[in-house]
Design goal:
Elements (H helix, E strand, L loop, with lengths): L1 E5 L3 H19 L13 E17 L5 E18 L6 E16 L2 E21 L2 E17 L9 E20 L2 E16 L6 E19 L2 E18 L4 E17 L2 H11 L1 E9 L10 E6 L2 E2 L3 E2 L5 E7 L2 E8 L6 E7 L4 E8 L6 E10 L10 E4 L2 E4 L5 E8 L1 E7 L7 E7 L4 E8 L8 E9 L9 E4 L4 E4 L5 E6 L2 E8 L6 E7 L4 E3 L2 E3 L5
Parallel strand pairs: 1-3, 12-19, 20-26, 27-33, 27-34
Antiparallel strand pairs: 2-3, 2-11, 3-4, 4-5, 5-6, 6-7, 7-8, 8-9, 9-10, 10-11, 12-16, 13-14, 13-15, 13-17, 17-18, 20-23, 21-22, 21-24, 24-25, 27-30, 28-29, 28-31, 31-32
Length: 525
């Protein structure tokens, strides 16, 4: 028998990929809570790999044996659930096997072999394990050679139509990494070999895979799959011709799953962490109801949330990492706290808020008569430009004053006005008493002045007559005079020799000292 073998360097590349890729994918995953395989309504698996094949064809000639490795082993596998009951679905599977027969470095013959299967599938979840049973139709192209000669074999294809029975078990391995084992048994309905009138076929397949989730977006999950499959097929014609092969398929696959809503939520929670936060008064340790909390996660500030009556707020879904909590409450200093949230765990944080130092205060002013200490009613009080009046108790209160000194001006009829400085203390109402002193009554006012001529401004000896006060007096040689008058309005007549007489009106108050200068015009000649 002739023996042809092909062992390409792709085997080395595949071995390295199988060793490195799972480690890379696991390194990308964050810690998550353990999770079973779940019940995906839809999944699609796309695989690329190599096939390690060994087989023989026996006929009336010398026959042919072959073994080796071929690349470009492809598979697309799709499963859909929910077409009727949620446990019942359909599946479609398409596989392409590359086949190349070489002698040394020279290609002798080759081609592609296809497998197609479709049918119904049912599943059941038992705890963390999901079991699937399938039944359907399968077609497989199997290798055959038209000339049984070691020198010039010609690649042809045999075929098998079969009813397929299959099963698959999926189970958790570590965290969110899952495994599966599967088996398939074709029950031949019809088979053929090239140039043979009739044929029969048998075989079986078994496989295993490890699925490593890479990324989840909403209900979509993308996974990397390391897949292995063992297949044995045989074809036997009614004549003496028979062909058989053993196939080991190894490959890497991308799997896209549309997760069940509850599973997606559970897996998302497994990837996320949570935070229980409480805000309390730093002095009393009592819960600070009404405080506002804003969380900063991954540099993004969330909208503020109010704590409950216990001063608490719970965030159920947070990305793992450092979370900054910003707390604000009326009458309290802002508080900032930090906590690290781990995936699948709940972090706790207590923030203590300190009361703000008051920035405003009040002032209560009492206005009294300093002789009797009795309150002065309706006395004007001016504080920071705002005028108020005392009540029946002589009191006036002013609020919302800035902390620090403030000027207070108090006045009242018949009393001397007073201006004093008061100090406003934050958060308190300061008190001050302002005693007013009555104005002394002298009973008269004093007016004084000088009488001069408009000609060169020389002083005049003039006569001043005030009928209302029954006063008649003369100025001295310098034209000066000084008079004491009762408070009120008086008419004064001023006359001097050679000058026109003038009449002036003047009003004076008790105790006032007024200046009264007069200029007289000379008479014309």
């Amino acid at each position: 028998m002739a023996r042809l073998r092909r062992t390409p360097p792709f085997l080395v590349i595949l071995a390295l990929a199988l060793a490195v890729v799972p480690g890379i994918v696991l390194a990308q995953e964050e810690a998550a809570a353990p999770s079973g395989p779940g019940l995906e309504p839809v999944f699609l698996r796309l695989r690329y790999g190599v096939a390690i094949r060994s087989g023989e064809q026996v006929d009336t000639g010398p026959g042919l044996t072959y073994s080796g490795l071929t690349p470009n082993d492809l598979e697309a596998w799709a499963v859909f659930y929910g077409l009727g009951p949620e446990w019942l679905g359909a599946q479609l599977r398409l596989q392409r096997e590359g086949f190349t027969l070489n002698r040394e470095a020279d290609r002798v013959t080759g081609g592609s072999l296809w497998r197609l299967s479709l049918g119904a599938v049912a599943r059941r979840q038992l705890g963390p394990i999901v079991g699937e049973l399938g039944v359907g139709y399968g077609f497989a192209q199997l290798p055959a050679f038209g000339v049984s000669s070691a020198a010039s074999p010609v690649f042809q294809r045999g075929g098998r139509h079969a009813a397929l029975l299959g099963g698959r078990l999926r189970f958790p391995i570590f965290q969110r990494v899952t495994g599966e084992v599967r088996a398939e048994l074709p029950l031949s309905l019809a088979a053929q070999l090239p140039a043979a009138e009739g044929a029969s076929s048998s075989g079986f397949g078994a496989g295993a895979a490890v699925r490593i989730p890479v990324r989840q977006v909403g209900r979509w999950m993308g996974s990397a799959v390391v897949d292995y499959q063992f297949v044995h097929d045989s074809l036997k014609a009614d004549s003496a011709v028979s062909s058989g092969q053993t196939l080991q398929r190894v490959g890497l696959a991308l799997e896209f799953s549309w997760l069940d809503a509850s599973v997606a939520a559970a897996q998302r929670l497994g990837q996320m962490g949570s935070l229980a936060l409480q805000v309390v008064d730093a002095e009393t340790k009592a819960p600070l109801a009404g405080a506002q909390v804003a969380l900063v996660v991954k540099g993004t500030t969330q909208a503020p949330r109010a704590v409950d009556a216990k001063g608490q707020v719970v965030e159920l879904e947070l990305e793992p990492g450092e979370v900054v909590a910003q707390v604000s409450a009326e009458g309290y200093e802002p508080v900032v706290g930090r906590v690290t949230v781990a995936a699948g765990e709940r972090a706790t944080l207590e923030l203590q808020a300190h009361k703000q130092a008051p920035t405003l205060g009040g002032l209560k002013i009492t206005v009294v008569d300093n002789r009797s200490n009795k309150p002065l009613v309706d006395a004007p009080v001016v504080v920071n430009g705002k005028e108020l009046r005392t009540n029946a108790a002589g009191l006036v209160s002013v609020g919302n004053l800035a902390v620090g000194p403030v000027m207070v001006r108090v006045s009242a009829p018949e009393f001397q006005p007073v201006e004093e400085a008061a100090v406003v203390i934050g958060g308190k109402e300061s008190e001050m008493s302002v005693p007013l002193t009555p104005i002394k009554r002298l009973g008269y006012a004093t007016i004084s002045g000088t009488v001069r001529s408009t000609r060169q401004g020389r002083p005049l000896v003039a006569t001043l007559v005030i009928p209302s006060a029954k006063v008649r007096t003369r100025t001295d040689a310098q034209g000066a005079f000084a008079l004491k008058l009762k408070p009120g309005t008086h008419r004064i007549t001023i006359s001097a020799k050679g000058h026109l007489t003038q009449v002036k009106s003047v009003t004076v108050r008790d105790g006032e000292q007024a200046i009264f200068n007069v200029d007289l015009f000379p008479r014309g000649r």
